[in-house]
């Protein structure tokens, strides 16, 4: 169940990024995501923002894109935002 939740989050995030970049037709079926009629595997990597400074984020993002990644995963570290 947890894996399927992350897949949905990744899918929605990827769709959001695609919509910002260009006019794109996105669909999905039981096998894959379909972008402009072509089946696509979305490659992603994780960036843990507490391990880097905000000044590093644009460079990390650009390097990820240059390396062929389509999406960046991140986590919300709730212990930094909610009192214990």
Map the helices and strands:
Elements: H1 2-21, E1 26-28, E2 33-35, E3 38-40, E4 44-46, H2 57-66, E5 71-73
Parallel strand pairs: 4-5
Antiparallel strand pairs: 1-2, 2-3
Enumerate the spans where pLDDT stays under 50 for 5 or more consecutive residues: none
Q: Strand content of the residues, in percent? A: 15-25%
Coarse structural class: alpha+beta
Give Rg in angstroms.
Answer: 15 Å
Counted by DSSP, the helix tally is 2
Overall pLDDT: 79
The percent range for helix content is: 25-40%
**Oligomeric state of this protein:** single chain
Question: Can you describe this structure?
Answer:
The chain is α+β, with helices and mostly antiparallel strands. The protein has 2 domains: 1-40, no CATH class; 42-83, no CATH class. 36% of the residues lie in helices and 18% in strands. The protein has 2 helices and 5 strands; from the N terminus they run H-E-E-E-E-H-E. Strands 1-2-3 form a 3-stranded antiparallel beta sheet, with no helix packed on it. A hairpin with a 2-residue loop joins strand 2 and strand 3 (38-40). The longest helix is centred in the first third of the chain and has 20 residues, at 2-21. The model has no long low-confidence stretch (mean pLDDT 79).
């Amino acid at each position: 169940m947890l894996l399927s939740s992350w897949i949905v989050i990744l899918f929605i995030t990827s769709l959001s990024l695609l919509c910002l970049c260009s006019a794109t037709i996105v669909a999905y079926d039981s096998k894959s995501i379909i972008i402009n009629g072509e089946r696509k595997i979305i490659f992603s990597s994780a960036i843990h923002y507490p391990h880097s400074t905000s000044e590093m984020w644009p460079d990390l993002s650009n390097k990820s894109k240059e390396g062929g990644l389509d999406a960046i995963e991140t986590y919300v570290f709730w212990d930094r935002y909610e009192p214990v």
